[in-house]
Design a protein that fits this description.
heterodimer; A: alpha/beta; three-stranded mixed β-sheet; about 10% strand; B: about 425 residues; alpha/beta; Rossmann fold; 3 domains; SpoVR_N (chain A)
């Protein structure tokens, strides 16, 4: 008599979930994640939410707490419309890079989906957040929720004191510059703890209270007042202000002459949030690939151990293949390369190369081909790469062939695209380099820096745009953004376009010329 | 073992504040859109949700963005079928939205969204200059009154039904044999009467027994509460919608050539406002449209607002038509009759007397309320605004106004002038008999 039928090993049966099955499944997944994949994760906090709450979370860029701004309302309406028209399903989960790692599960999900989501977000993403060097270096998972809480209440208090309109205009301007509000090379100052922020606020309040206009009227020292500037003094001035500076928001926060303390603090909040999301934007393929690889491996392991039923596995696989679907370029559904698909394929390719390499693989990846230890290779890749370097390092010819990738070269003036390379011996390197390049944020966003400002004279703020490959800025957007900078700076702002190679001036736009 | 938190019961609409900020930002655009819809839609539709298109102005979020049509760039695309290096592919037409160039996102700026009834009414009310009380009244959907409906086990402390609670408590105490105070007191009294020292064995035994018994009883009294949470009953109240009767609203309008686009638009707002008011107060509101030139006719809403007729102007024909319809279909015993008349004041010279007679003898007796607006040019408003002089119809109606308290009239040149016509109607509101 089979006393313990094989069914009894199942973590759950049927599609309904409850907290027992959730927690049992999570424990089983954790065991596999730690034993089989050697993942290292933050403690997990699972939160069950309804679909409306998921929509809410969408509109506040996925954070559980956010200050109020009309643009979030606009995004909410847009998402709601997509959802209502069933044009797009909601994400099954949302995960926040915090410690403990917060994972949102939707109540509408079936148990099979909850298991998939747990493996994907609570272990895949979580491991990536904790171990990737970019996240370690640029974000502070422990402090972000506390900071957002502070940001939300600070901005609410500003709205109370200074009026919604005043706060809105600062936020509008700051949002326009979010792209230019991150440190790309320098390590950002650490998020200060609650106490330090409290101190900062007290200091701001003290400054406000004790501000005395008399100080401004004191005669300047001799060295300040020189009007005839030589090249030397320009150099000194630039050095004093740390110019050129590409973090425009930071520069305005520190040096703008017209901002009040609370306005500077708002700029700082926007800047900190932009900085927090900066690593995520550089690791879309890796992050999603890591999570997808993890859930795929874990769900298979669960199935192999008889912990989930065939029906569950079928549902999991159906959802999995929806997620990693990659239409070809001429498919009407094509909208760029699916990061889930590319990430997963590359990671599975690494697994293949480590365990069953071909001669070609040995040629291309001598470091790890045939070592058999794909776990170590993947853990290392997850920890030490971003999308650009990951693709440059690991995209194999086999995968290029599998995807049938080709390189298209597009020059605006010509009426046709040029096929530059295809998946053949001569093309692999070029395709790999170009794909890697396309994930490099540094080359994808225009290089705009503050180069000079004459604080004592006209206070004219000069920005420089290094034009690469002749890619110009959209005029309307550019003018509107310059006007936003002027709101924060208070005086004339101009942007000069300079060719990156030749250094030749291409164009100049300034707020003064716009107002004329 | 992860931590689980159930957030489903947390308040929804976390982004309501964002939505309000957004609507405020695009207020003027939305207002125009809503008013266009009210102008072109049916009167009864004003009171509901409206779908509006995303206003472009004021909602763009600029940033430094690369121009898509400049410079040189490279794309890596999947799914090569037969291309070899050097092949040339024709570019799709500009703006064709073809999938072959990456980075094409669906535009966020081109979509429609739904405004709730509240938001629509807010926008509609904006330049009507209604007092806040009136706005609130109009937005309220149903008048309800709490009515006793039995008992419940939960509720607010002020609603505790003490008699019912104590009855439950008493029953429970009997059932669980909670020791009475008298029993305890009897033992204490007996204990006090017995002297432990110098007594014989029986007495000592009795004392020991009494002590344990006292202990037991007191413990039992502590365990079985006098009033337990399970005993508590609350009075339950059900919101009961107030009984409402039916109302019919007559819209009378002069449609002769002199009523132009602007006049009709103002008239429509006037009718919409009256309809909102009636809809709030009555279960069922019928609307009857009567247009007139030198003859009157009952028509549907579309032809009421959008077709013009040529002819003279004889107002009394409309009043007669209205009277006929009331007699035939809306007996005043069963219906609350409201009438709103809009006109530019023209009338056949001899007809005004006839109107006056009709109003006095028949119509005002039947009507709950009769509102008349005379739509005038903005320039004329300076001249006519305050005087009682005016057209013969105006003078005739002046007399009606003096005799009948439920008649109101006004000259309107802009939207803000409409409300005063209804002032009496709305101030009467709080004291409407509730039967």
């Amino acid at each position: 008599m089979p006393k313990h039928a094989p069914r009894s090993d199942l973590l759950f049966s049927g599609s309904d979930w409850n907290f027992q099955t959730l927690s049992r499944t999570c424990d089983a997944i954790e065991t596999i994640a730690k034993e089989q994949l050697h993942l290292d994760v933050y403690p997990v906090q699972m939160e069950i939410i309804s679909s409306e709450q998921m929509l809410d979370a969408y509109s506040s860029i996925g954070m559980p707490l956010m200050y109020r701004h009309w643009s979030f309302g606009k995004h909410f309406l847009y998402q709601q419309l997509l959802y209502r028209k069933a044009g797009r399903g909601l994400a099954y989960e949302l995960v926040i890079n915090s410690n403990p790692c917060i994972v949102y599960l939707m109540e509408e999900n079936t148990m099979a989906l909850q298991a998939l989501v747990t493996a994907h977000a609570a272990f895949g993403h979580n491991h990536f957040f904790k171990n990737n060097y970019l996240f370690q270096q640029w974000t502070d998972a422990g402090a972000i929720l506390g900071y957002l809480d502070f940001a939300k209440s600070f901005i609410a208090r500003c709205e109370e004191r200074h009026g919604d309109a005043a706060v809105e205009s600062i936020l509008d301007a700051a949002h326009a510059l979010m792209e230019q509000g991150v440190f790309r090379y320098r390590r950002p100052p650490k998020l200060s703890s609650e106490k330090q922020r409290e101190g900062l606020r007290e200091r701001l309040e003290y400054e406000e209270r004790s501000y005395n206009d008399l100080w401004r009227t004191l005669p300047r020292t001799a060295s300040d007042g020189k009007s005839d500037e030589t090249h030397d003094s320009i150099a000194i001035r630039k050095k004093a202000l740390n110019l050129p500076e590409e973090n425009i928001l930071y520069f305005l926060e520190k040096n703008s002459l017209i901002l009040e303390p609370w306005q500077r603090e708002i700029l700082r909040i926007v800047r900190v949030i932009a900085q927090y999301f900066y690593p995520q934007r550089q690791t879309k393929v890796m992050n999603e690939g890591c999570a997808t690889f993890v859930h795929y491996t874990i769900m298979h392991a669960l199935f192999d151990r008889g912990r989930i039923s065939e029906g569950t596995m079928l549902e999991v696989l159906r959802n999995h293949s929806n997620v990693v679907f990659q239409p070809a370029f001429d498919d009407p559904r094509f909208s760029g390369i699916n990061p889930y698909a590319l990430g997963l394929d590359m990671m599975q390719d690494i697994q293949r190369i480590a365990t069953a390499p071909t001669a070609e693989d040995r040629d291309w990846f001598p470091e790890f081909a045939g070592t058999g230890d794909w776990r170590a290779t993947l853990l290392d890749a997850w920890a030490n790469h971003r999308d650009e370097s990951f693709i440059r390092q690991y995209l194999s010819p086999a995968l290029i062939r599998k995807w049938r990738m080709f390189l298209l070269s597009d020059t605006a003036e010509e009426s046709f695209y040029n096929v530059a390379s295809i998946h053949n011996e001569r093309g692999y390197e070029k395709i790999r380099a170009a794909l890697a390049q396309s994930y490099d944020i540094g080359t994808n966003y225009s290089d705009i820096q503050i180069v000079d400002v004459d604080l004592l004279g006209q206070r004219h703020l000069r920005l420089q745009h290094k034009v690469t490959d002749g890619v110009a800025l959209e005029n309307d957007n550019c003018d509107a953004t310059l006007r936003h900078i002027q709101t924060l700076w208070g005086y004339e702002v101009s942007l000069e376009g300079v060719d990156a190679q030749s250094g030749a001036a291409l164009y100049e736009r300034s707020t003064r010329q716009m107002s004329e | 073992m992860p931590i689980f938190i159930d957030r489903r019961l947390n308040p929804k609409d976390k982004s309501l504040g964002n939505r309000q900020r957004f609507l405020r930002r695009v207020r003027t655009e939305l207002k125009r859109s809503v008013q266009d819809q009210i102008r072109s839609g049916k009167i009864a539709d004003a009171d509901g949700e409206h779908s509006v298109s995303m206003p472009i102005k004021g909602t763009s979020e600029p940033s430094f963005r690369d121009a898509k049509d400049s410079g040189h760039r490279q794309y890596v695309l999947p799914g090569n079928k037969h291309f070899t290096p050097g092949d040339k592919l024709a570019k799709p037409n500009q703006g064709g939205g073809s999938g072959s160039s990456p980075g094409l996102q669906p535009s966020e700026d081109d979509f429609r969204f739904v405004l709730s009834r509240e938001e629509v009414l807010d926008l509609f009310f904006e330049d009507l200059e209604l007092p806040d009380m009136v706005k609130l009244n109009l937005k309220e959907i149903l008048a309800v009154k709490p009515r006793r409906a039995g008992f419940s086990v939960s509720g607010s402390p002020t609603n505790i039904n003490i008699a019912r609670t104590m009855r439950n408590s008493h029953g429970r105490r009997i059932a669980l044999r909670r020791p009475k105070r008298e029993e305890v007191e009897a033992i204490i009294a007996e204990l006090a009467g017995l002297k432990p020292d110098g007594a014989d064995g029986a007495v000592r035994q009795r004392i020991a027994w009494l002590r344990t018994e006292l202990d037991r009883l007191e413990r039992r009294r502590r365990v079985i509460a006098f009033v337990d949470p399970v005993d508590i009953r609350f009075n339950r109240f059900d919101p009961q919608p107030l009984p409402n009767a039916n109302a019919v609203m007559f819209c009378l309008m002069d449609v002769s050539g002199s009523m132009g686009e602007r006049e009709k638009d103002l008239a429509k707002r006037f009718f919409v406002l009256l309809h909102l008011f009636l809809k709030r107060r009555y279960n069922r509101t019928d609307i009857v449209f009567i247009r007139h030139t030198h003859q009157a006719q009952e028509v549907d809403e579309d032809s009421f607002f959008y077709s013009t007729q040529s002819g003279g102007t004889v107002v009394s024909t409309a009043l007669e038509e209205m009277h006929r319809i009331i007699r035939e279909r809306y007996p005043s015993r069963e219906w609350n009759i409201y009438a709103a008349q809009a006109s530019d004041g023209d009338n056949l010279a001899t007809d005004s007397e006839h109107c006056l007679a009709l109003m006095d003898s028949e119509i005002m007796r039947l009507c709950q309320y009769f509102a008349y607006v005379e739509i005038i040019d903005e320039r004329e408003s300076e001249i006519f605004g305050s005087t009682d002089n005016g057209t013969s119809l105006w003078r005739a109606y002046r007399t009606v106004k003096d005799r009948w308290p439920n008649f109101d009239m006004s000259r309107i040149a802009k939207a803000a002038d409409i409300y005063p016509v209804f002032r009496q109607l709305f101030t009467k509101q709080p004291t409407v008999p509730r039967d």
